[in-house]
Amino acid sequence: MLATATLAAGFSSLSAQAADADSGDAPATDLDKVQVRGSWFAPSSPKFTAELLDTPKSVSVVTEKTIQEIGATNLVDALRMVPGITFGAGEGGNSTGDRPFLRGFDGQSNMFVDGLRDVGTQTREVFDLEQLEVVKGPSSAYGGRDSGGGSINLVSKTPKLKNETNVSMGVGTDSYARGTVDANYVLGDGIAARLNLLRHAADIPGRDAANVSRWGIAPSVAFGLNGPLQVIASHYHLETDDLPDAGGFPYADPATGTPSGRPLVPDRNNYYGLKDRDFQRTRADISTIDASYDLGGHKLRNIARLGNTSNDYLWTQPDDSKNNPNKYGTLWRRTNDRAIDTRTFADQLSLTGAFQTGGLKHSYSAGVEYSEEKSSKGGYDIGGGGTNNPISNNQVCKTTGAATGYNCTDFYNPNPNDPWSATHPVTRTNKALDVEQTTKTKSVYAFDTIELSEKWLVNLGLRWDDYDTEQVTPVLNKAPTVLRNSDGFLNYQAGVVFKPTANGSIYLSYGTSSTPPGMDSGEGNDSISAAIQNLKPQETRNYELGTKWDLFDKRLNLTAAIFHTEMSNARVVIDTGSTQNAGKKAISGVEIGVNGQITDRWNVAGGYTYMDSELKDNGFVCSISSRTGCPAPGVWIVSPNNGNMFPNTPRHAATL
């Protein structure tokens, strides 16, 4: 949808701005939430104790202006401007929301909103975003558990002391229609309110039948914007109702090729799903209270959040496991379904400021955090259809149509309007049998940037997490299966910064991260099994040498970095068939980035990434294929993937 959305924004949009020149007695000072600290753009998190130029880590900031100018309509669109990020989809076609990979590591569980972890599975919107902040490399010192590649923080829009209304509307090809409203009003002395609205609908370009539809509202109110005590209350609501698209036919498997060995290539527009059955509906409700008090050189802040997200879907995955396309010119309509509800509570108390000791200036940030994440994972009962062919009682499709319950369709000419036939309508499975997972985390952290001289700085960070997760799987007429993992882990980072000039820096840094069992990816994919519940967290470390430069009156930021990231105790299967922390993988690379304004009319954002990844020890695999597991210990062999690149690490990647 990116190309369509960009055309709509660039050629078919209407925008209106209304600013009240006489805003009553409201002061002229704009106290927006994101404070620019010596640069045209800056991270909002108080855990950054120096401006971006002097932070010894790769950090990319995507501003609201950039988001608007590229015509981004969702998070994936906005992140395409950030080097070092690739995107994945759910395993087997399961839709689990946004799934970015940062330097080859799954970043779905490392999503934050205003500095608090957001684990709910959803396709995130941009209508309420002030900016995006991407931290690359292991960053558990900043946010706790981490997959090793970095984290993404979404900064929400907040009220400001300025009357302003922005309305945008866009239309385009493939039934694209989008409208947003961003209205800010001054209500009194230091009091302001802001309202963001969204309506979006479109077909999927180049695909039959598939479409998306969503709407959102995000109100917020702020008190004390011109005083030491500030309180901001906000709520974010987003609903989606899509006809999902699992994509076209995966014709890479030689088994599905023609007798001559050439792959079968159907029309790209083919949609193998069913309008009468398939759906994906998501909902997000997130309420936040952010309070801060200026102590004069120090600031005390507390941010608390309650969140509730859901992701329900049933959709078709084209299945060629029985070689139906080659044998009969047909395809099996396999169904994937899930119902996920996630509830979160998080609270973060922090103190930031600066002081001097022995002639050295310290800029510090310290705090404590508590979070509780609860998820329920169920599915949908499709009434016997979508599981078996009434004719063959399996996935073999010798024919199509009503006789097969419309589980089989023509490979070259599928009909998404086929009527769905089943013994009963699609219904939610018994919620009493949902898998329940609860994760509780208590954390304490501290950061300090020490100015040794005008040209030398040292950055230090430390974080301790006390982590506990429990998974309860109900069993009909039996006691539930309970799995649990508890641990504590310490992570840290250290960096040295040399400033040859005021607008440039050269840095060397080291950082670590920890990934507890079952926390590799986002909610909906995360789970514990008996094989891994007693294992230690995976540990990742990163070495980085880089440089940053602010040009054109600090409006343009240039960055370059060489990095090496290594996971030394990855979870793998060993030669006895058990899972242990014995694997190893590494990635080395170079990253170049550019972000900002060259002239008043010329903005640029993008970069280039080179990645060289290797699975150094990927454990063992069974040499005999069996649906019931490996039959004997003696048939385990060293993984043939040893020495290969690991997924989602393109050797060369560029964006502009």
From TrEMBL:
<keyword id="KW-0998">Cell outer membrane</keyword>
<keyword id="KW-0798">TonB box</keyword>
<keyword id="KW-0472">Membrane</keyword>
<feature type="signal peptide">
    <location>
        <begin position="1"/>
        <end position="18"/>
    </location>
</feature>
<protein>
    <submittedName>
        <fullName>TonB-dependent receptor</fullName>
    </submittedName>
</protein>
<feature type="domain" description="TonB-dependent receptor plug">
    <location>
        <begin position="52"/>
        <end position="150"/>
    </location>
</feature>
<keyword id="KW-0410">Iron transport</keyword>
<feature type="domain" description="TonB-dependent receptor-like beta-barrel">
    <location>
        <begin position="238"/>
        <end position="656"/>
    </location>
</feature>
<dbReference type="InterPro" id="IPR037066">
    <property type="entry name" value="Plug_dom_sf"/>
</dbReference>
<dbReference type="InterPro" id="IPR012910">
    <property type="entry name" value="Plug_dom"/>
</dbReference>
<dbReference type="Pfam" id="PF00593">
    <property type="entry name" value="TonB_dep_Rec_b-barrel"/>
</dbReference>
<keyword id="KW-0408">Iron</keyword>
<keyword id="KW-0406">Ion transport</keyword>
<dbReference type="GO" id="GO:0009279">
    <property type="term" value="C:cell outer membrane"/>
</dbReference>
<dbReference type="InterPro" id="IPR039426">
    <property type="entry name" value="TonB-dep_rcpt-like"/>
</dbReference>
<dbReference type="InterPro" id="IPR000531">
    <property type="entry name" value="Beta-barrel_TonB"/>
</dbReference>
<keyword id="KW-0813">Transport</keyword>
<keyword id="KW-1134">Transmembrane beta strand</keyword>
<dbReference type="Pfam" id="PF07715">
    <property type="entry name" value="Plug"/>
</dbReference>
<dbReference type="InterPro" id="IPR036942">
    <property type="entry name" value="Beta-barrel_TonB_sf"/>
</dbReference>
<keyword id="KW-0675">Receptor</keyword>
<dbReference type="GO" id="GO:0015891">
    <property type="term" value="P:siderophore transport"/>
</dbReference>
<keyword id="KW-0812">Transmembrane</keyword>
<dbReference type="GO" id="GO:0015344">
    <property type="term" value="F:siderophore uptake transmembrane transporter activity"/>
</dbReference>
<comment type="similarity">
    <text>Belongs to the TonB-dependent receptor family.</text>
</comment>
<keyword id="KW-0732">Signal</keyword>
